[in-house]
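Before relying on records like the one below, remember that each one covers exactly one chain. Contacts with other chains, cofactors or solvent are not represented anywhere in the record.
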Amino acid sequence: MSKEHKNDKKDQIRQKMIERQSEAKLVRKIVLIIAIILVITVGAAVGGGYFYIKSAIKPVNPDDKKEKQVEIPIGSSSTSIGKILEDNGIIKDARVFKYYVKLKNETGFMAGEYKLNPSMTIPDIIKSLKTGKLEEQLVFKVTIPEGKQLEQIAGIIAEKINKKPEDVFKTLNDQAFIESLMGKYPDLLTEEILNENIKYPLEGYLFPATYPFYKENPTIEEIVKPMLDKTAAVVNEYQVAMEERELTVHELLTMSSLIEEEATAKVDRDKIASVFYNRMATGMPLQTDPTVLYAQGEHKEKVLYKDLEIDSPYNTYKYPGLTPGPIANAGVMSIEAALVPDESDYLYFLATSSGEVLFSKTLDEHNQKKATHIK
């Protein structure tokens, strides 16, 4: 190779190195510029977020003392309370309120009607909602225990408002009354409650809790509304779990009611739920005694073999799957058991006279326990 050719080769290599160095410098400059932009952007976002949150915590209008009447329903979460306050112009941002409450670990908000104004700070609003301005004006409370049926609930309501239980029960099952409530609670009270096999459309939908009332002689609708609000709030907390199990609200409350009626103080509701789901998966009828009593409309200590013959879609000895609707109201523990049952192979359970519940995988095992514990 000639000397001249070698020099040309070196010049080409040198030129390529210069180009690469130039390219590397350009890349480094671009990276540096992008990094600077990112730092500025993030800084601006953080700074902007800081000033936004700082502003959102302050009163909406320090000079506006005009009071607004704001109603906080029974069972409202911090999220829903924040939305109500924002919609009424009492706070600037519901999300900021939610996280403020969470970070401060604020709890114990009381339902009721409050007089609030846009000049109030978030701490003042929280203090007002926790102390309950209307506590002194409480007229009466209605306590609905877990596992109660609609007819029993009607009796509890009737006693508080000086009406006949049968009149309250009649109103609770009135077609126009039910359709009116369905219009107000479309996501909770669906067409499923109007199934022709349903005994009482509102059965299982009046959540067990204690409800305060602040006026004399409220209407039955005014008494029922907080109960439906509470059910809607509770169900809303489990939307994701319901979707995972592919359950409608009606199916969830129905399964929960069966668990509630079979549960005792000593029982593991998760295991009862697993038995019901295992039976449904294999096509076995649920065979749960409370459904037979509900079909009969009776309250008895013991179900006899002749009782099992009643021809009703609520009789789970005759018809497989869930009952047409709930047979009672269920508490949170039963609802959670219906959504997250225990993983087991159990197909049978037996309640003893002491309240203990024994679980079995086979019929032979079940019958042995039955012979030992049921006299």
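Residues 3-57 form the longest helix (55 residues).
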